Amino acid sequence: MARSLIFSAYSGDEILESFNQNTDFSPTLGLIFSSVALDIPEVSAICSQMNIPIIGCSTSGEIVSGTDNSPVSEQTAACCFIDPDPDSFSIRLFETKDISEKDCGLEIGRWGMEAFKDPAYILFISGLNTNNEAIIRGIMEISPDKTPIFGGVAGDDGRFEETFVFTKDKYSTQGVVAIVFDRSKVQINGVATSGWVGVGADMTVTSSEGNIVYTINERPATAIFKEYLNVNDETLQQVGVMFPLLMKRPDGSEVLRTFLSVDHERGTLIFAGSVPKGAKVCFSSSFGYDTIEKSISDLHDFHNLHEHADLVILFSCLARHQAAGSMVDDEIAAASELWNAPIFGLFTYGEIGNNRFGTCDFYNETLCLVLIRFVA
């Protein structure tokens, strides 16, 4: 069983101080989820003084359970240091600005397969115009069936301006940082749950390219959203994130899609994941406590299948935080009570985890829970 040190910090210097004060064990891996208020390039530079592999990203809220206060904080860094066998994992930063998202995913998949025969991934993605789903599809194309892939899309405190991923050596605003684990030594399982349901009539995406949607029902995508939400150009971004599209796939699965940027001049929306032409979509219900209750029920069902964990990581959508307020604490408390393990995480602009068919998918407006157990 790996040991862990988990804490919140309000500056890069505080992260380093808390790390250096630890005398209980010698960490071999660090994960840091930090608000952009802490200055991510500075945090990355400070991490270089720790002399262990470190991986992290910017956030839109941080999660650290086990304190007397709310597990949710803002403008802090959620830090986790653990001591797995150094031979059981590898980390790397990949840039996406000069290659397609699909090619980036293929590169990650090749790297992971070269590292371990049976890999599992946790990754974080930066960039507001990135087709995050294409990265996942690239990894899946080159990986064994049912390869575990979990993670999230970096945030920036809801500003939608610039997001970051980083290691102790470098950072990127258009990149992916990944940990690949050896599944013979590390067990990784997870579940994704949203609780959102579709409302209103189905619509058809009539023109799109990857994650860029031009028209829905032959009308500009921005016009559809502004009419439904009764908003103008200035408020479309902030309000729109609270009302995702529910996309219905041919195989019967459903995923939520949220746009991260808007081209008002062209009337297009850039979503966090792919929205293909011809897709059937509808708007989603507003968030309520029944949404939280559905997610908690899903966590209980998942616990019946996977009862043990050394570490629990939560990737929860920014919109859940904004819509639920303090109610989101109940989801975190449920996870803490069920697994009785250290819990930390972040609020994201997109989530990566298993769908109900047991294969990886990309989500928005979703809570993704990941269990890590070190078996050797």
Count the E strands: 26
Biggest β-sheet description: 8 strands, antiparallel
Total of domains:
2
Structural class: alpha+beta
Indicate the low-confidence ranges by residue numbers. Answer: none
Q: How much helical structure, as a percent, in the residues?
A: 25-40%
- Supply the number of helical segments: 9
Radius of gyration: 19 Å
Instruction: Please tell me what the overall shape is.
Output: globular
Mean of pLDDT: 91
Distance between the termini: 8 Å
Taken as a percent bin, the fraction of beta residues is 35-45%
Describe what you observe in this structure.
- The protein is an alpha+beta fold.
- The protein folds into 2 domains: 4-190 and 290-374, no CATH class; 198-284, no CATH class.
- Helix content is 26%, strand content 37%.
- It contains 9 helices and 26 strands.
- The chain has helices at 12-21, 40-47, 101-115, 132-142, 221-229, 233-240, 289-305, 318-324, 328-339; strands at 4-9, 29-34, 54-58, 62-64, 72-73, 77-82, 89-95, 119-125, 149-153, 165-167, 171-172, 175-182, 186-193, 198-209, 212-216, 219-220, 245-248, 254-257, 259-263, 268-271, 280-284, 311-317, 343-348, 351-354, 360-363, 367-374.
- The strands form 4 sheets. Strands 14, 15, 16, 17, 18, 19, 20 and 21 form an 8-stranded antiparallel β-sheet that branches.
- A hairpin with a 5-residue loop joins strand 24 and strand 25.
- The chain is globular, with a radius of gyration of 19 Å.
- The protein starts with a strand and ends with a strand.
- 52% of the residues are buried.
- The model has no long low-confidence stretch (mean pLDDT 91).
